[in-house]
Write a structure and sequence with these properties.
Blueprint (H helix, E strand, L loop, with lengths): L10 E3 L7 H14 L9 E9 L4 E5 L12 H12 L5 E10 L12 H14 L4 E5 L5 E4 L16
Parallel strand pairs: 4-5
Antiparallel strand pairs: 1-6, 2-3, 2-4, 5-6
Bound molecules: tetrahydrodeoxyuridine (THU).
Tetrahydrodeoxyuridine (THU) binds next to strand 2 and helix 2.
């Protein structure tokens, strides 16, 4: 028997202004994307923006459904569209942010498990890490260098 510990690195920024101008721009795109969220049920509007190695930025927002499980998160809308439009171009980074009708989102919004799994697939496919930036409406920003930091023991194609 062997007890093991898993650690991962992330950077916590006190505010958006501490990020590089490229990172800030990507987050601004995610903030704009938030406005197009269709979230009549949760009232929680999420925006995502993906930047590709060719400089293209692809945005996404959560799209809900009266049949709740049919709704799709912002991260997957952006990632899937990026892959559909530019299948052979590397995804460099994704910025995620959220706002709510019910309260001020003042801490970073972290991606759900399905989005982590989905993003991990693209990271594995392109053999290149995807940087993740996560923010609420205001306040701190979490930065990770790779999706795998967010999903230890990820299931991937090597098991199939
Ligand atoms: N949501 C996202 O868009 N991304 C996440 O990673 C977390 C949750 C959306 C799904 C749903 O429309 C709303 O936020 C509330 O769960």
């Amino acid at each position: 028997m062997q007890k093991r510990k898993l650690e991962f690195n992330y950077t916590m920024f006190d505010s958006l202004e501490e990020l590089s101008s490229k990172q800030q721009h990507l987050m601004q795109c995610a903030i704009s994307a938030r406005e197009n969220a269709y979230a009549p049920y949760s009232k929680f509007k999420v925006g995502a923006a993906v930047i590709l190695s060719n400089g293209e930025i692809v945005i996404g927002s959560n799209q809900e459904n009266a049949s709740y499980p049919a709704g799709v998160c912002a991260e997957r809308v952006a990632m899937l569209y990026a892959s559909a439009k530019f299948p052979d171009i590397k995804i460099e980074a994704i910025a995620i942010t959220a706002t709510s009708i019910n309260h001020k989102v003042d801490s970073p919004v972290t991606s759900c498990g399905i989005c982590r799994q989905s993003m991990a697939e693209y990271e594995q496919k392109q053999k290149f890490p995807i940087e993740i930036l996560m923010m609420g409406e205001i306040g701190q920003v979490i930065q990770c260098d790779s999706v795998l930091d967010l999903i230890p023991f990820a299931f991937d194609s090597s098991f199939l």
